[in-house]
Amino acid sequence: MTDAKHTTGGALVLDGSALRDRMIADVAREVADLSSVPCLATVLIGDDGPSQVYVRNKHRQAQLAGMTSRNETLPASATQDDAERLVRALANDPSVSGILVQQPVPAHLDGEKLLALIPVDKDVDGLTTVSMGRFMRGMDSLVPCTPLGVLRLLQYYGASTVGKRAVVVGRSPLVGLPLSVLLARKGIDATVTLAHSRTTDLVEVCREADILVSATGQARSIGRAHVKPGAWVVDVGISHGEKGIVGDVDFDAVQSVAGAITPMPGGTGPMTVACLIENTLAAWRLQH
């Protein structure tokens, strides 16, 4: 590890952008030796601005990894049949290695039905019912990208997880719930508390954590009082404020007490994309 840097308060900065670049370069070397080129296909429905930015970034990283990419778009007025027809066509296309339906979809569409059309071996987001069920049971599956990115970030920068107490704030099926399961898995072996908006004495619960992860989308809801001195603090939440992207963690207040901390932006976001690209390579291998 050569990317380590520290804040003025002394905390180690968990630079997700630097690690993403390393991971993408590693994937590119593997892709160069394959018998065919993996293809990532995204489905973007509507004109949500942040979603368009996220999708462009995913395709840029796929191309840097030597993969091909397809961005399939539908207007916000698309019907459920239109959307299902597109996802089904990608599912049946042998040249497509991985499929991602960008969330959120327009309110009149049933996003769960769209996800259900993605074959388990092409579910590079790891979010379908089948993929999540296999993941929860410890079976081979493509792991959800954001939880996997958090774990990779902790491991790369040297966090000790065995026997450590981890607190995950936020119980969404996209991040909090699968991350709690991942951190508790054999070989990682953290003791995990899953906290949420109804948790009594949240500050005290968080202060027990050696590893504190927040994924609520509540801007600057995690402050200095929540953090045990020396704890590793990972910010997954994203809010869009007047001055740009804001995380769950009050970085300026927390960095002076934490042992390690992710920046926002530049922390977990790049890792989510890196793990998506890794999952696309893994999906290609499953299909070949």
Structural features, described:
Helix 2 (49-64) crosses helix 10 and helix 6 (145-156) crosses helix 10 (268-287). The chain is globular. By secondary structure, the protein is an alpha/beta fold. It has 2 domains: 36-119, Rossmann fold (3-Layer(aba) Sandwich); 145-270, Rossmann fold (3-Layer(aba) Sandwich). It is 38% helix and 17% strand. The strands form 3 sheets. The chain has a 7-stranded mixed sheet with strand order 1-2-12-9-8-6-7. The protein has 10 helices and 12 strands.
What descriptive keywords fit this protein?
288 residues; alpha/beta; Rossmann fold; 3-stranded parallel beta sheet; 10 helices; 12 strands; 38% helix; globular
Percent range for helical residues? Answer: 25-40%
In order across it, which strands form the biggest sheet?
1-2-12-9-8-6-7
| Architecture (CATH level 2) name of the largest domain | 3-Layer(aba) Sandwich
How much of the residues is beta strand, in percent?
15-25%
Total domain units: 2
| Total strands | 12
Low-pLDDT runs of 5+ residues are none
Shape: globular
Rg from alpha-carbon coordinates: 19 Å
**What's the mean pLDDT score?**
95
The topology string of helices and strands comes to EEHEHEHEHHHEHEHEEEEHEH
CATH topology of the largest domain: Rossmann fold
CATH class of the largest domain: Alpha Beta
CATH superfamily of the largest domain: NAD(P)-binding Rossmann-like Domain
> Helical element count?
10
Going by helix content, strand content and strand pairing, the class is: alpha/beta
Tell me about the largest β-sheet: 7 strands, mixed
- Assembly annotation: single chain
Termini gap: 33 Å
